[in-house]
Predict the structure.
Amino acid sequence: MALEGLHIEGFGQFAGYTLEGLSAGLTVVHGPNEAGKSSLMNFCLHVLFGPERGAKPRALAGGRLGGRLRFRGPGGELIIERLGDEEPRVRRPGQPEQVGQAAVQRALGNVDRGLFRAVYSFALADLGGFDKLGEGDDALRDRLFTGSLIGAGRSVAAADRRLGEREKLLWLPRASSRLKQLVERQERLLSELQAARAEASGLERLELEYTEQARQHGSAKAEALAARRAAQRLERRLAALLHQRELDRRLAELSDLPHGRELRGSVLETALRLESECRSASSALQHAQQRARERQTELEGLPQPGALLACASEVEALQREAGAHGPEQAERRHSAREQSAQRLSKALSEAGLPDSAALGRVTFDEAVLAELRRAADRARFAEEAERSLAQLRSEQAGLQAQLERGREALAALPQDALALEQRDEVLALRREAPQVESLRGALTALERRIQDLRAEIEPLAAQLGPAARGVSQDEAAHSAWVAEARAHRRERERADAALERAESERAQADKRLGQAQRDLAAQAQPEALEPGQLEALLEGADACLLAARDQGRLRGELEQLERAERACLEGLGAPWSLDRLGEAHSDAGRLELLRSAQRRVAAAEVEQQRAAAALAERELDCRQAGVAAQAAAPGAPSARQLAEWLEAADEAEAGLQARALRALAGPPARGPGRWPLLAIAALLVALGALALGSGAAEIGVGVLALGLLLAVGSLIWFPRPSAAAPRPDASGGDQRGLAALLERLGLPADADLAALAQRRRELRRQQRDAELLAELARARQGAAEAAARVEQARLAWRQGLAQAGWPEAIEPAQFDALLPGVLEGRRLIQRRADLEASLRQSQTAQGDWQRGAEPLLARLGLSLPRDEGGARRLGEALRQQRQEARDRQQRLLAAERSAVEARAAADRAAQALEQAAAQREALEQRGQRLNLELRALGAPADTALEQGEDWLRGARRLGERRRDLEGLERQREVQALGVQGFDQRFQASVVQRLGLAGPLALEDAWARVQRAHDFEQARRAAEGDLQALERQVREFEVKRGQVQERLRHLDGAAQDWRGLLERAGLPAGLGPLSLETCLDGVRRARDAGADHERSEREWRDGAAQDSRWLQALGRLCALAGMNAPGDLRSAQQSAELLTRALSEERRRAGLRAKAEEELSSARSQLARAEDAVQAKTRELADLLRELGAESVAELERWKRDFEARALAEERVHLARKARDAALGEWAGDGEELRSLEAPDEAAWALERESALELQRAAEARAERCIEEQARIGGERTRLGQSRSVPELELELGIVRTQIEAARRELAVLVLARALLARTLKRFRDEHQPKVLRRAGRFLEVATGGIYTAVEPDENGQTFVLEDATGGRRRAESLSTGTAELLYLVLRLGLVMDLAEGRGVLPLVLDDVLVNLDPERAAALARLLGEVAALHQVLLLTCRPETRDLLLASVPGARAIDLPRFAGRTGPVAGSDNEPRSSGEAARKQAPTRLLEILGNSEEPLGKQELIERSGINEAHWQAAIRELEKSGVIESSGEGRGRRYRHKR
């Protein structure tokens, strides 16, 4: 399948670009840098396979991204199109269109992007090595080695690896493996079995000895346990004795304490809380009284609200309306009235009406208006019809002239029916002509190649003889023999080397074994002490060192404590001493009792001070009031009597007022007379009396005098009534009651209101004096009670001091200052006791260890330490002894391991030597078999084994050349048939039918048929135009008749129009086209008239509302004492002032209301405070009465006594518990308790020492038994570790069974790998030459016969080249140019091989001849011509010499030159056809672009220059430049940022 052409809608710098006429053979696309060669390659890949992952191609020059490719193959024409983000489309002539990438894949023969990039499209950077070949399609690697794309080689290799891993697990001669471990284990079990059989006889004796030692050890342990329990009992008794003494002391303290009384729950807290709440309530009561007085004074000082507050709603309404009655609003209404009048005049003028009366005559009847509009339409239609008729006549005349000219031009067009008939055939011949020319060139090249092959075959056949013909027919057997011969040669070399290594290893192993045995004998020496004894000694030495340090530290701390005690006593003062500090109690309970007593003393003293201050205050009040500070005189009235007398004074005052009114009253006069004045006078007299009674004497006297004067004046002014008139008189009972009250008050019966007021003031003064004396008496009683409480609190303080063991001379104020010193002294005493006990314990433990360690140290040549330095040196010596013992043990173990390893190495070396000898013998037999197989393959009898491969290679080459010759001859026949068919069609169509001949006959024929086709197209277009013109002429005739008919219907329209204007009242000169304009003007005039009437009405209403608002504002201003405003402007200011005055009135009213509310709240709070005081006082009294206590202080004393006794009982319990804990398990023994009551410490100490001596003796016997048991146990363990004979025999049988199973498995694996290798080798030998044979022949042509064959290495990972002399070179040892040539011919071989199964695709090469010298470049050009005979080849290059070489070497090759920037003056905006990204496509193209830039530069370039010129992403720089350096195509110089790169030429 060949690419004929392409069209780019938009891609990179191309837009609307078409490339046609590509050769079916070789096409060279030449252009300078940035001409778009790489963009063309990327465009083809984009259309075929879409954008790569991560890449984002763009149409930089415009147009829609994408385009189409046109191919031609055996099935005819094929077009593949991809535009934008749409799915690709595949089109074939006569077949439905297919959509999707799967359709493209099927059309390409299932070639995907990876395979196309790896084989069909590659650049120079892709020829860097074998790893490049496998990037596109992993199956290609198998293709080179197995001849198949199904992955068989990889699956077989994987299976072989798995089998090999299993084989290594079973057996490795020089490493650890399962079979080797089993064999070693079998040998070890055999040795153990022999030793076990020899040592089994001595095990019974050891068992008897071990049993006897165990019995003796148990007896000694029982004796030691009994002695230890006796010593422990005595130790616990001595320890419990101290606690017993503490218990006795605590019991004595408990008996001295009072019992007290337990208070349930939180009774005391409740009482204290109630007492505190009573004090708080009294304070709150005083605060409430003060607050009520303050609120009353504040309310009396506030003024009364004015009269404006009652009109607040009217003021607010006026203020809200003030904005609507400003001068601006009045001016705006006047202006609106004037403007509306102007708009009305303008609207009448626009409507053509003289005045408002004419406007009123205009009618807007819908029927008249409808007739007017119809008449206007008819008149307008008539005018338009006249104009249309004239225009139609003119256009019809022009169409007639154009129609005549078209008929004349149509008659003048020529016709060529024969050329039109042959057009399709000539077009097909013209398209196939380039391919036919390529086939002709390919035929010529094939002829030359056939002649070259025949010239090569004849001398080679003569050299090999007739036997080579038979060999060449059995290539599989030949390849298998060659591979086996090579493997035999390699294995023989490895066997010789293995034999030499085995002999050397055997000698070294024997030498190491002897040395290890000598080292083992030298290290076997006995130890002075067991490891456990040495560790115990070391631990004891460390403990001894620590004890010495602790003892020194303890002595130093004791000295510091003595100094601190002396300092503490100095700080406390004379009454204190160490004995007194020891007796003083520091427990929290007693200290809390002392603190409570201290607080009670302080509280009592504070209460005493308060009571004294209150007494002094009462005495001062009495002195100020002039009352003697003594008890009331005998016979003086009591407070109760004084209160009753004051009540009687109130009743007498009412009677006196009534009597005065009756005295002033007389008979009624005519008219109003004097009675109203008398009533007012009586009211004034009553008010004056009330003022006198309340203490306001001056006001009362004034009001009373005014009333009396008014009464006297009324009597004088008005005449008295006649005697005959009746007059009221008071009853005698009321007079007698009033006289009794006055007598009780000490007043005469005729006393007046003034005398009564004087008597009332005297009674109130006496009442106040009585109250002062009562308060003075209560204050004196409170002071006495406070002094008693102080004395009681001091007595409790002294008792607390005695209970706490403190001196009685200490005052409560000194307690807080002395308490820290006392606690510190107690702590120092306790600390000294603890330190002394620790010192004794450390000295005892140190002596015990020294007694036990002395004999062991003597065995090591060491002595007991005398001081801290000696203990430190002893520890260092013991650590050195322990390290030396460990080192000796490590050396012994290392010597044993070395001996075992040396013995095993000697065994392995001997076994390896035997295996190497056996392998060498097997290889000798294999060589003899290979000689026989070589004779069977037809080689001469005198051919040596080493020469057989060369002879068979020559025979194989002869067979390959003969098969290549046959293939070329078949190709020549097929291509000749194609050329012959083309010539026959050309002769029939061009020469015979069209009568053309010569080299340009085909082009002339194409020009003729193209002209005929163009004339035919023009004729058809002209006929279509003539038909359209005729249709237009007919349409114009119809339109002209319609217009004329319309004109007949519109006659008389003007006369109707004028009559209708007169009916509607419109101007007579109004035209039809101005009707709607006039009607709109009339409507606007009517709207303007209505607007003017509305403005006039609003102006009048606004003036009336402003007048009413001014009147209301003037009335309110007069009420507020302000001047009334004269106009609207001053009225705004007056309204604002009026609003401020109202706000001030409201503020005053709010302050007075707030004051009244606060006064009410204060009175309510005062009432609640009085209730609270009474309730709390009553609740506290009820609680004390219920408990039977006189005060809260008595409750506190009860609680202190109870808590002190409870604390003492708890201490007794703790002391008893401490004694029982000291006794331990003997705590419940009555004998022990009785012995503590009558202690004998000296006897107990002697018994304890005796028990300890017995314990040590028994433990020493037990230790000796343990040592003997350890010795016997070690011997028995050593014998027992060899296990019993039956157990060893059973394990030995199991190991032998496992060895046999492993050997069978190993044999199966070895056989399976051998069969697999043979099968894979045969498969490769049969299929591999299909690719590598072609590659070898191509390489031979390209190198001029220097290299003749290409083969894979033994591992299938790289290639080996064979030269003409039989030498072999690996691919990695080749130069850069030769390596690139190798991988190029490998790809060409793959292309030839893939063409058989997947069809032929175009081969696209990007400048692959850059690194070749001229000779090889010419040879490769000829080789590409040979490939182009069967495949289409597109080669991209920027070098003119490469283009010229290919055109000269390949017949029929065609060149296409691309201008720089695709013909533009500069590059298109954008970085590349595929923008820089992290995608896979950009990464793979980076090396190619860098190599292209370096190849076109004569000077070395730096990193930044290369990135800017190539346009690659900087993230791909490192990988791309490393790849080029590794491939060897570039070289670098300099370091760091100065590093520069250049192309190797």
Q: What stands out?
A: The longest strand covers residues 2-11. The mean pLDDT is 75. Residues 868-936 form the longest helix (69 residues).
